[in-house]
C-alpha cells in the first residue's frame, strides 16, 4: 500500500486543526474539554480535506483538461467531436483519394483555428456573399471600404443588390459609410457611375481614386467600426479569392492606415 | 441554482461569448450563495444561542455550512464538469481522425469571439460535420476550389479504366489552366495502359463543332471519344459523371450556366454501379467521334 504525500493545503490545514483542537481543549471547561477538542479535530480535518479538494486537487485536474474544456464550452465543437466519435471507424476513408480530401479539410480547419487564436479569420469566395451582408449589418458607427473596379464589380453579382441594399439601410440608420472606388484609369469610371450615383443618393460618402495616384495596391480593404478589418486576396494561378479578416490590434492599425492613405489620395465624387 | 445547476442564466450570453454559467470568478454560484447563507445562519445562531454555548454553536454552524457548501459544489457542479471533460478526452481514443479533430477544435479559445468570426467558424464546423456524415455513407464532396487538384490526383490514381461523361462549359473547365493539365493527365493515363472513354454532351451541333479541336486531340491521344446530344437524354443523365477502376465514382454539380460548382464522389459498390449504369445509358445514345469523321468524309 502506498500513500500519496499530503498536499500543502492538507499540511497547513492539519496544523491549524491541531492548533484549534489544543486551543479548544484549553478553553473548554470541565467535562466538555475532551468532547469539544474531538469535535474541533473532526471538523478541522473534514474542512481541510474538502478545502484541499476544492481549491487544490480540482484546479490541478482542470489544468490537465484545458483542451477538453475549450470544446465542452462550445456546443458546436462538442457536437462535432461527438458526432465524429459516434461515426467511429466509418469516418476513416477507405479510398486513398478520400484521405487526401479529408486531410485537406482538416488542414483548412486547422488553419482557420490557428488564425482565430490570433484574432484573424479567413472568408473564402463561396462564403463571401452572405458574410459581406452580415458584416455590413453588424456595423454600428462606421464602414470604410475600397472597391477596385479592376477586381470586383460586386453589384453585377446576383447577391450584389442585397449587399447594396444592406449598405444603404445602415447608412440610413446613421452609420457613416465611405466607399472609395479605385480605377485603373479614368476610362473605367463609367463602369461604376450608376452605382456611385445610387450610393450618393443614399447618404453614402462616395469617393474615387486612380490607381496611379496610390501607393502599390494589393487588394480591397474594409474597416468596420474601426475594430474589424478585412483585406481581399486573389490566389495567384488558382483564380480563387479569399479575404482575411482581423480583430488583431496590429492588423487593425495597419489596414486603417492603408485606408487612410487611399482616402488622402482620393477625391469626393461629384456627378 | 437548483441541484447544483443554474436554472436562470446569470446574464445574457451568446454561444461564443460564454463562460461557465455557474461560475463567478474562481467560485461557483453555489459557493457564493452557500457563503451568504452561512453568514446569515451564523448571525442567527449567535443571536439565538445561550450565552455559554454561543461560540461553540457559531463555530459548529459555520464549519458545517462551509463543508456542506463545498461538498454540494463539488458534487453537483465541479465534478460533473470534470466528468464531461474526461468523457471528451476519451473520445480522442475513437480514431486517429477524432484525435486530430480534438486537437484542432481545442486550438482557439472560444471566449469573447466576435460574432462574425463565430459565424465563419460555425460554417466550417458544420461543413466538416457534413463531410463526416457523408464519409459514413460512402461519399464525399470536393468543392470547387479543391476540385482541380483532386481530379488530377484521381486520374493519376487510375490503373485500368476511366469512363466519363462531360457536360461542363468549355470556358469553365477545358479552357482553364487546370483543364489543360487534366487533359494531359488523361493522355498520360492512356500511355500507361489505362482505357479512357469520354462521352461529351452537347446542346447542338454548334457546340460540338466549337470543341471539335479538343475532341480530335483526345482521339489522337488514344482516348475513346463519344458524343451525344442532350435532347436525346433523360435529364438525370445530363451531367458530368466519372467512374475510375470501378472503385470510385463521381458526379459534377454544375451551376445554371454549366460552370463547375462541386463534385460528389462515391466509394460504395452500389453507388458506383449506379453511376456506371447512367454512363452506360448515355453511351447507348452516343456516337463515336471517328464515325462522325468518316460520315463527313463519305458525304463529301
How would you describe this protein?
The complex is a heterodimer of chains A (271) and B (300). Chain A is α+β, with helices and mostly antiparallel strands. Helices cover 55% and strands 17% of the residues of chain A. Chain A has nine helices and eight strands. Chain A has helices at residues 8-27, 32-64, 66-73, 75-87, 96-117, 128-138, 160-172, 189-201, 249-264, and strands at residues 120-124, 142-148, 176-183, 205-210, 221-224, 228-234, 241-246, 267-268. In chain A, a hairpin with a 3-residue loop joins β5 (221-224) and β6. The longest helix of chain A is centred in the first third of the chain and has 33 residues, at 32-64. The radius of gyration of chain B is 34 Å and the shape is rod-shaped. Chain B starts with 22 loop residues before the first strand and ends with a helix. The relative contact order of chain B is 0.08. The chains are: A alpha+beta (271), B alpha+beta (300). At the A-B interface, α2, α3, α4, α5 and β1 of A face α2, α3, α4, β3 and α5 of B.
Short description, anyone?
The complex is a heterodimer of chains A (about 270) and B (about 300). Chain A is α+β, with helices and mostly antiparallel strands. Chain A has helices at about 10-25, 30-65, 65-75, 75-85, 95-115, 130-140, 160-170, 190-200, 250-265, and strands at about 120-125, 140-150, 175-185, 205-210, 220-225, 230-235, 240-245, 265-270.
Main sheet strand line-up of chain A:
1-7-6-5-2-3-4-8
Q: Percent of residues of chain B in helical segments? A: 40-55%
Strand content of chain A: 15-25%
Contiguous runs where pLDDT drops below 50 for at least 5 residues of chain B = 1-19, 291-300
N- and C-termini, Cα separation of chain A: 91 Å
Main sheet overview of chain B: 8 strands, mixed
Pattern of helices and strands of chain A:
HHHHHEHEHEHEEEEHE
Question: What is the terminal-to-terminal distance of chain B?
Answer: 92 Å
Task: Please state the average pLDDT score of chain B.
Answer: 82
Shape of chain B: rod-shaped
Count of DSSP-assigned helices of chain A: 9
Q: What is the arithmetic mean of pLDDT of chain A?
A: 88
Uncertain spans of chain A: none
Q: Tally the beta strands of chain B.
A: 10
Oligomer: heterodimer
What is the helix/strand order of chain B?
EEHHHHEHEHEHHEEEEHEH
Biggest chain-to-chain interface with counts: A-B, 80 and 80 residues
Main sheet strand line-up of chain B:
3-9-8-7-4-5-6-10
Amino acid at each position: 500500500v502506498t500513500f500519496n504525500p499530503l498536499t500543502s493545503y492538507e499540511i497547513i490545514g492539519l496544523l491549524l486543526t491541531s492548533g484549534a483542537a489544543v486551543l479548544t481543549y484549553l478553553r473548554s471547561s470541565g467535562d466538555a474539554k475532551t468532547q469539544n477538542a474531538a469535535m474541533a479535530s473532526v471538523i478541522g480535518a473534514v474542512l481541510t480535506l474538502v478545502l484541499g479538494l476544492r481549491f487544490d486537487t480540482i484546479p490541478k485536474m482542470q489544468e490537465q483538461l484545458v483542451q477538453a474544456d475549450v470544446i465542452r464550452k462550445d456546443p458546436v465543437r462538442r457536437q462535432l467531436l461527438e458526432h465524429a466519435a459516434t461515426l467511429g471507424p466509418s469516418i476513416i476513408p477507405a479510398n486513398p483519394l478520400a484521405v487526401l480530401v479529408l486531410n485537406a479539410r482538416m488542414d483548412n480547419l486547422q488553419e482557420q483555428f490557428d488564425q482565430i487564436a490570433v484574432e484573424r479569420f479567413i472568408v473564402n469566395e463561396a462564403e463571401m456573399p452572405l458574410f459581406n451582408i452580415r458584416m455590413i449589418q453588424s456595423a454600428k458607427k462606421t464602414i470604410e471600404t475600397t472597391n477596385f473596379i479592376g477586381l470586383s464589380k460586386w453589384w453585377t453579382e446576383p447577391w450584389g443588390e442585397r449587399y447594396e441594399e444592406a449598405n444603404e439601410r445602415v447608412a440610413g440608420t446613421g452609420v457613416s459609410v465611405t466607399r472609395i472606388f479605385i480605377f485603373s484609369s479614368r476610362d473605367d469610371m463609367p463602369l461604376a457611375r450608376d452605382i456611385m450615383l445610387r450610393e450618393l443618393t443614399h447618404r453614402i460618402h462616395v469617393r474615387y481614386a486612380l490607381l496611379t495616384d496610390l501607393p502599390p495596391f494589393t487588394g480591397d480593404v474594409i474597416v468596420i467600426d474601426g475594430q474589424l478589418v478585412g483585406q481581399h486576396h486573389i490566389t495567384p494561378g488558382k483564380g480563387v479569392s479569399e479575404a482575411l479578416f482581423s480583430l488583431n490590434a496590429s492588423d487593425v492599425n495597419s489596414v486603417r492606415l492603408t485606408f487612410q492613405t487611399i482616402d488622402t489620395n482620393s477625391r469626393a465624387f461629384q456627378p | 441554482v437548483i441541484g447544483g445547476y443554474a436554472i436562470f442564466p446569470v446574464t445574457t450570453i451568446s454561444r461564443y461569448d460564454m463562460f461557465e454559467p455557474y461560475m463567478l470568478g474562481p467560485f461557483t454560484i453555489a459557493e457564493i450563495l452557500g457563503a451568504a447563507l452561512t453568514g446569515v445562519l451564523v448571525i442567527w445562531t449567535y443571536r439565538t444561542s445561550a450565552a455559554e454555548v454561543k461560540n461553540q454553536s457559531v463555530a459548529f454552524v459555520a464549519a458545517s455550512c462551509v463543508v456542506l457548501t463545498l461538498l454540494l459544489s463539488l458534487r453537483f457542479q465541479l465534478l460533473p464538469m470534470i466528468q464531461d471533460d474526461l468523457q471528451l478526452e476519451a473520445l480522442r481514443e475513437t480514431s486517429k481522425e477524432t484525435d486530430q479533430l480534438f486537437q484542432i477544435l481545442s486550438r482557439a479559445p472560444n471566449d469573447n469571439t466576435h460574432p462574425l468570426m463565430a459565424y465563419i467558424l460555425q460554417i466550417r464546423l458544420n461543413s466538416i460535420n457534413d463531410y463526416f456524415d457523408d464519409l459514413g455513407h460512402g461519399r464525399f464532396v470536393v468543392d470547387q476550389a479543391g476540385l482541380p487538384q483532386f481530379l488530377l490526383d484521381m486520374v493519376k490514381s487510375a490503373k485500368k479504366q476511366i469512363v466519363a461523361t462531360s457536360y461542363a462549359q468549355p470556358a469553365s473547365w477545358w479552357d482553364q489552366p487546370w483543364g489543360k493539365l487534366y487533359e494531359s493527365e488523361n493522355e498520360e493515363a492512356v500511355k500507361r495502359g489505362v482505357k479512357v472513354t469520354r462521352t461529351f454532351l452537347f446542346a447542338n451541333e454548334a457546340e460540338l463543332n466549337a470543341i471539335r479541336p479538343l475532341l480530335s486531340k483526345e482521339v489522337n491521344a488514344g482516348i475513346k471519344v463519344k458524343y451525344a446530344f442532350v435532347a436525346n437524354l433523360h435529364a438525370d443523365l445530363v451531367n458530368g459523371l466519372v467512374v475510375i477502376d470501378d472503385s470510385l465514382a463521381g458526379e459534377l454539380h454544375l451551376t445554371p450556366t454549366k460552370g463547375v460548382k462541386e463534385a460528389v464522389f462515391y466509394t460504395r459498390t452500389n453507388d458506383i454501379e449506379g453511376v456506371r449504369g447512367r454512363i452506360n445509358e448515355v453511351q447507348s445514345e452516343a456516337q463515336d467521334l471517328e464515325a462522325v469523321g468518316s460520315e463527313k468524309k463519305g458525304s463529301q
